[in-house]
Amino acid sequence: MGVRAMSGKGAWHDLIALDEIEEGWVTRVDLGARRLAVYHTPSGFHVSLALCTHGGADLCDGYFDGHVIECPLHQGAFDVRDGRPISAPATRALKVFPCREEDGRLQIML
Ligand code: FES
Questions:
Q1: What spacing in Å lies between the alpha carbon of 103 and ligand 1's midpoint?
Q2: Residue 3 has pLDDT above 90, yes or no
Q3: Is the pLDDT of residue 59 over 70?
Q4: Which residues contact 78 (CB under 8 A, 6 or more apart)?
Q5: Which atom of ligand 1 is nearest to the CA of 59?
Q6: Domain extents for the chain?
Q7: How far is residue 20's CA from residue 6's CA, in Å, rounded to a whole number?
Q8: Which residues contact 75 (CB under 8 A, 6 or more apart)?
Q9: Which CATH architecture best describes the domain 22-109?
Q10: pTM of the predicted protein model
């Protein structure tokens, strides 16, 4: 499918086949230099940068439940739907990306 321009800024990028995403869990995906985390939640898929905004730990090694990813290093937590921190010591939001399903694959807007 490739890259498709949207409204002059950002474009959809192919990320991963839907059947490669762990059900109800978090899956690590590298896209170029970006390390991303793909979450399968009760409300569908969500994507964020994988590194914790507190100390840079890889959230893909954390604990995931529902819509909440808990950092493996200091147990800060984020809501993966919008990236907001919901538990100390995390205070800065996680960068999240719009995503969509297309032809059995997940795409994100960059
Ligand atoms: S590195 Fe994630 S809470 Fe500290």
A1: 36
A2: no
A3: yes
A4: 48, 59, 68, 69, 71, 84, 85, 86, 90, 93, 94
A5: 2
A6: 22-109
A7: 26
A8: 87
A9: 3-layer Sandwich (2.102)
A10: 0.91
